[in-house]
Amino acid sequence: MDLLPKNHKQFQEEGYWNKFFQDKQTKQGFEWYASYEELEYYLKQSIKDKEQRILVVGCGNSALSEKMKAKMNFTQEIVSIDFEEAVIKKMRHREQKGVRYEVMDALDMKFENCEFDYAIDKGTLDALCADRTPETASRVVKYLNEVVRVLNSKGGTYICVSLLQDFVLDALVSFFSKGLGNDHAEQNIFEFRIQKIEKVVQKTAPDGSQMLPFFVTVKRTVIPEDAKLQDLRVKMAETIYF
Ligand SMILES: C[S@@+](CC[C@H](N)C(=O)[O-])C[C@H]1O[C@@H](n2cnc3c(N)ncnc32)[C@H](O)[C@@H]1O
Q1: How far is CA 186 from each of CA 51, 141, 230, rounded to the nearest angstrom?
Q2: Residue 148 counted as domain residue
Q3: Which atom of ligand 1 approaches the CA of 105 most closely?
């Protein structure tokens, strides 16, 4: 199997992830886009409080959760999920204290509402959002609604490390800024920021282009009851740093 898909669409093919994690090149661990070390600056900038409850969505066999736990000294257990049973089984064997791995579909999470302060996604939205078809759009909306649901409504933050291809950026803006398909748009505002990840060791995509990841944060807060939605929409921060 070629390590990376020939095109983005392959991400969504049945069995792609299962085969990916069986491959001998990826079996011991494969870090998509950026390692913990390359992300540390951005993570520390976003997550300052050690008490935060963290969920890693679509963890694969990345060492991100383990390294965050070890190097950022979080007091709470970090929960990491992936829908690939085989990869979660392996991750459990690594037996790192304070990191829990669960088999779970990110589109149908078994967590309570507002259970986490951060949901970290490195490459998972990219895997779910491969094109502009209606099927993909509804899958992405389902996923993002689940992410928002499990985040606390007083500052819970979705961190998404993505290549931000145009259809991925459009999906994020349409859901969080325009509120399209967003079940929480009437009660919440979403503060949306994008930063380019500097100093990442650049990897080359199968089509020869350079893969340049971005660090996206979306913070969920509740609209105060007496505020007019329209006023707040205008105030909604949308900052892009390039
Ligand atoms: C691009 S890989 C990123 C893996 C890991 N986060 C990393 O950075 O190395 C995408 C991951 O999302 C997982 N995934 C895709 N769709 C999922 C879903 N519906 N529920 C849970 N995990 C999913 C895949 O199994 C895969 O591990």
Answers
A1: 29, 16, 11
A2: yes
A3: 20
